[in-house]
Write a structure and sequence with these properties.
Length: 298
């Protein structure tokens, strides 16, 4: 159980069994609204957990801070107006509100703003798996160039391949410290979270693949299936940029190996970083998971 607001507790792996039934009912499609995400980014955003009373019982609330500024998230639904007002008094801002929540709160005279930097990019799995059509010809050519130059083997992420994936991540970190270049949506600065994901992939419900050239690990990709069982979120892709076309190859290969029930791939946000936005837009998403920030009226 979680403490009653305003008391709160740190996020731990032990809380997953309690929280997972709540997360399994979340249908927003928002990439932040999974246990894996709030656990992995618990330190970056200072996440803590509390709960408030509601008609159906206790409603978990996620509390956080961005650069010392408090905020909260409500992936499991909106509480009564009085409780919501108290949350706003203490935490100023609701982040990652769904379009449905935003519409309700706008009617209650809260100030609603699009958070475009955090929109999740949505792709048809078939598009990424086949790269068919003129709009993907550059990606297709890079994959062809890679395949003609390198014999790349792959296998599912299991404990026996953990050391290989960690070696890829360490090399990626070393190169990321030298450059801020982005290749097809990979983002710098998330080494700690990516390592945590690898070390706890099973309990977090993640799945992935590790890639090898000449027997040496060169890349990995991992993510998780959302409760709708039709969407898969890509949380991390790390690759050795010394191999031209490797990122494009693992992007396509991973999409091909996802279960047939997966129709949509969520490649998360661009954080407003120009290079990252350009890389993500180059894959021609069919839409976005929209997110909103809500604040009290002045």
């Amino acid at each position: 159980m979680l403490p009653q607001y305003p008391a709160s507790v740190a996020i731990s792996l032990e809380l997953r069994d309690y929280l997972q039934p709540f997360f399994l009912r979340v249908i927003t499609g928002i990439s932040e609204h999974t246990f894996a995400n709030i656990y992995l980014f618990r330190n970056k955003h200072g996440y803590r957990l509390s709960q408030v009373a509601c008609r159906a019982g206790g409603l978990p609330v996620i509390l956080g801070q961005d650069q010392g500024r408090p905020f909260f998230m409500l992936p499991f639904g909106l509480p009564e107006k009085e409780i919501l007002a108290e949350l706003f008094r203490n935490h100023k801002k609701l982040k990652c509100a769904s379009p449905e929540q935003a519409a309700i709160l706008e009617q209650q005279d809260y100030v609603v703003a699009e958070d475009r930097d955090n929109f999740d990019y949505l792709h048809a799995r078939q598009d990424l798996a086949t790269l068919a059509g003129r709009r993907f010809h550059k990606k297709r050519n890079r994959v062809k160039g890679f395949v003609s130059s390198f014999d790349c083997q792959a296998g599912p992420l299991v404990d026996a391949r953990m050391a290989d994936a960690l070696a890829v991540l360490d090399r990626w970190r070393d190169k990321a410290e030298e450059t801020e270049a982005f290749d097809d949506g990979d983002s710098a600065g998330d080494y700690t979270e990516a390592r945590d994901a690898l070390e706890h992939w099973q309990v977090l419900g993640l799945r992935g693949r590790v890639y090898y050239i000449a027997g040496q690990p060169v890349a990995y990709a991992m993510g998780e299936e959302l409760p709708d069982r039709k969407t898969f979120v890509i949380h991390f892709e790390k690759a050795d940029t010394a191999y031209n076309g490797l990122y494009q190859f693992i992007n396509q290969e991973f999409a091909n190996t996802l279960p047939e029930n997966i129709e949509t791939i969520n490649r998360e946000q661009d954080l407003g970083v120009p290079g990252l936005r350009q890389a993500k837009l180059s894959y021609h998403s069919f839409g976005f998971v929209e997110k909103f920030t809500v604040t009290p009226a002045p």
